[in-house]
Amino acid sequence: MAARPPGTLEAGQVRAMFDRIAGLYDAMNTVMTAGLHHRWRARAAELAAVGPGDRVIDVATGTGDLAIALARAVGPGGEVVGCDFSEPMLARARRKAPQLRFEWADALTLPYASDSFGAATVGFGARNFADLRLGIEEMVRVVAPGGRVVILEITQPTREPLASFYRAWFDRLVPALGRLAGDTAAYSYLPQSVRRFPAPRELAALMSGCGMRGVRWILTAGGIIAIHVGEVM
């Protein structure tokens, strides 16, 4: 059997990786982003355009930070469902926000009715979908027409000097941090997975092909972070 390209893992390998690093995940995110990941998630929640009483799903929720940001928008009268296929990650999300609904689900076969949410988000999880198109199609399926799908991801900046800084940080320092944290493989996979993920324009085209209109994206953090948003038709 041919080896998988760098930056790709089978679904079972991805699940095992996140099960393994659940205890490191929040601390590593804070170190790698200087704490800015909370600001990026807040912006993604804002772009979901949900309000009091709405129902929204956060796919591949991990330890729940984006779901928590969405909960602030929908208020006590709304509902946020955070789903993930790593139980150790979900356990940490439940401890952070016991008032929210966190449950096991595979992003490629979401166990929710069509048109049952006002918006769907994924924060730093789309890179890990075994089938990106299918994962996006599932998010589109569960969102009612007129609702939004938001994808928050790391992307590769193209302008210098940030492009050189990005390569030094993600290609060398992030794996080194992973070694110090005791999981070299997981934090070597991270920069590899970013390199093979579609560029912003390509991801926007894919989202449009999955049943969305008005797809646009915002680059922030100097072009290291891309937030895509599209309206379900």
Description:
The chain is globular, with a radius of gyration of 17 Å. Helices cover 46% and strands 22% of the residues. The chain has eight helices and seven strands. It has helices at 11-33, 37-47, 65-74, 87-96, 132-142, 162-181, 184-196, 200-209; strands at 55-59, 79-84, 101-104, 117-123, 143-154, 212-220, 225-232. By secondary structure, the protein is α/β, with parallel strands linked by helices. Helix 1 (11-33) crosses helix 4, helix 2 (37-47) packs across helix 3 (65-74) and helix 6 (162-181) packs antiparallel against helix 7 (184-196). Strand 2, helix 4 (87-96) and strand 3 form a beta-alpha-beta unit. It has one domain: 3-Layer(aba) Sandwich (Rossmann fold), CATH 3.40.50.
Keywords:
233 residues, alpha/beta, Rossmann fold, seven-stranded mixed beta sheet
Strand order of the largest sheet: 3-2-1-4-5-7-6
Structural class: alpha/beta
In CATH terms, what is the fold-level topology?
Answer: Rossmann fold
How many distinct helices?
Answer: 8
Quick summary of this structure?
By secondary structure, the chain is an alpha/beta fold. It has helices spanning 11-33, 37-47, 65-74, 87-96, 132-142, 162-181, 184-196, 200-209; strands spanning 55-59, 79-84, 101-104, 117-123, 143-154, 212-220, 225-232. It has a single domain (11-154, 199-232), classed as 3-Layer(aba) Sandwich (Rossmann fold), CATH 3.40.50.
